[in-house]
Task: inverse folding
């Protein structure tokens, strides 16, 4: 009898490589890749997300205000994604949990998962920040705080992860192999 392949959940900031590594892992394991970015708005709409209102917020208040509006729906979307999809590689997209309630909901939803992998460029936060900013060719012009720095400094990723994998100076294939060797 062969050992079942466990689900893998990839978390981390924007441009950490979640989608790229997720695709490679899914191919290597013969599993589907599920990306929250592809389903997020569908889940948000289930609990009242208003796209017209979101566009108004973005136009009047900027990108950061839109991010804050979306935070209201994030925990629900992640809970639904985990409930709906099994036997796959899951890319959670970028996001942190500003409220204790949202964080605890996501923490509870992720509790059964042995492989919640935090992808970061480096163990050095300054190096990670530099690399992630280099990768982000089109940051929103109307953001007046450094969201990437905020993501890296926030406890969410570190507290949710069962393992951290550093990607700097590795090819995506090498990072994939490191993850596979640890499951």
Result:
């Amino acid at each position: 009898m062969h050992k079942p392949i466990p689900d893998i959940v990839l978390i981390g900031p924007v441009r950490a490589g979640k989608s790229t590594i997720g695709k490679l892992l899914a191919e290597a394991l013969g599993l589907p890749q599920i990306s929250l970015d592809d389903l997020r708005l569908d889940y948000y709409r289930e609990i009242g997300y208003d796209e017209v209102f979101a566009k108004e917020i973005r136009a009047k208040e900027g990108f950061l205000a839109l991010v804050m509006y979306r935070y209201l729906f994030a925990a629900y979307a992640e809970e639904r994604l985990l409930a709906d999809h099994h036997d796959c590689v899951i890319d959670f997209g970028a996001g942190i949990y500003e409220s204790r309630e949202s964080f605890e909901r996501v923490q509870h939803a992720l509790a059964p998962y042995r492989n919640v992998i935090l992808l970061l460029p480096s163990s050095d936060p300054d190096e990670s920040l530099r690399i992630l900013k280099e990768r982000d060719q089109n940051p929103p012009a109307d953001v007046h705080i450094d969201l990437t720095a905020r993501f890296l400094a926030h406890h969410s990723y570190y507290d949710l992860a069962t393992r951290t994998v550093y990607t700097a100076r590795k090819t995506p294939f090498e990072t994939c192999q490191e993850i596979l060797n640890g499951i």
